[in-house]
Amino acid sequence: MKKSFLQSLGPGLLFAGAAIGVSHLVQSTKAGAEFGFGLLWALLLVHLFKYPFFQFGPRYAAATGETLLDGYNKLGKGVLITYYILNFATMFTIQAAVTIVTAGLASQLFGFTNDLVIWSSIILFVSILILILGKYKLLDKLMKYIIIILTISTIIAVSVAFTNTKDTFDVRQILPLGSVELTFLIAFLGWMPAPLDISIWHSIWSIEKSKNTNIKIKPKDAIFDFNVGYIGTLILGICFVLLGALVMYKSGGSFSNKGGVFASQLINLYTKNLGNFSYVFIAIAAFTTMFSTTITTLDASPRTMNRSSKLLFNKEFKFGYWFWITFLFLGTFAILRYYLADMGNLVKIATILSFLTAPFYAILNYILIFGKHTPKEHQPNLFTKILSIFGIIFLVGFSLWFLTSI
């Protein structure tokens, strides 16, 4: 049993690698810097209410041996076409958003050049090289080390921040009401801990894991593996909010929307407040956070588009995965080349769209996991079903509140 668990561990960490990125490093840090501890309620609630829908990805894959995309196809071609259009419309912006933040951190950490387009190209090439050489197996192994490094360096940074702070803690919670504050809250919730369509990525990684190990992963092991990654995203999300609150709250500083300037501000402000020795911990934590997101999104979006294409056109595309990776690289490069100055707004748009489309994925996953396509013995218990219903109400309610308030 122990051997089986160790072999099945992996997709949950890939989920964590994809989730812990802009939502944590940028949005969570900004939440702490602008609201102190005041938005911890939002972070905890969104983790609670999104939990079942993320969990349904590995649960469905383990129970049926299929990806969620196969399940969507069974619900109707229209459902899959809608997903295909939504994913195509957002994947370039999402990849550009995570890559530019990674590039900004790389320019601060390694020097060489301050041209973020050049750094973005290098990072994308390195990511593609890793995927070409090792495919899923190398990505799976690499992510375990990245998450360990990220967790240790972040916890050290938070511990130092707690030790150095002389201020009293104000733990009052805040409900943003103004249009600017509400827009930030929705953007914060949109990618915290991740967009809901990552549940689809997780189901694909789970199937890929089974193919590579020739072991059928049991639903129980798949859910445990997911829980490890999900709890990790929650803990690190809290850590980044705390870092922002302890180091930046009421500091009088404001963040730039430009990736390179933001990265410099982030690292320098931490170093200034925590001491020069903390630079390496902050820089490594920040860079590994974003690099893990960059490589996992670069792997996942092409997988989803390739699988969707196969299901829609009922045809196997021999080099479909590599076609979509190349297409994603070119589209991302074009955005970074011509819209670099607007990256702050692009990130905001991408995160808000992710939140507004969340009810779509939540309802689909709910219908699929509690319907005829999932064996009864593998369907969640009553508590999870009730939590799912409240989760849908939460996501729909916040979306309507935002749309009627802007």
Descriptive account of the structure:
There is one protein chain. The chain is mainly α and 406 residues long. It has one domain: Amino acid/polyamine transporter I, CATH 1.20.1740. 80% of the residues lie in helices and 0% in strands. The chain has 15 helices and no strands. α2 crosses α7, α6 crosses α7 and α7 packs across α10. The longest helix has 49 residues. It is globular, with a radius of gyration of 20 Å.
A few lines on this structure:
The chain has helices spanning 2-8, 11-19, 22-35, 40-64, 68-75, 77-110, 116-164, 179-190, 198-213, 219-248, 259-274, 279-313, 320-338, 343-369, 382-405.
Chain-wise SSE layout:
Elements: H1 2-8, H2 11-19, H3 22-35, H4 40-64, H5 68-75, H6 77-110, H7 116-164, H8 179-190, H9 198-213, H10 219-248, H11 259-274, H12 279-313, H13 320-338, H14 343-369, H15 382-405
Helix pairs in contact: 2-7, 2-9, 2-10, 2-12, 3-8, 3-10, 4-9, 4-10, 4-14, 4-15, 5-6, 6-7, 6-11, 6-12, 6-13, 6-14, 7-10, 7-11, 7-12, 7-13, 8-14, 8-15, 9-12, 11-12, 12-13, 14-15
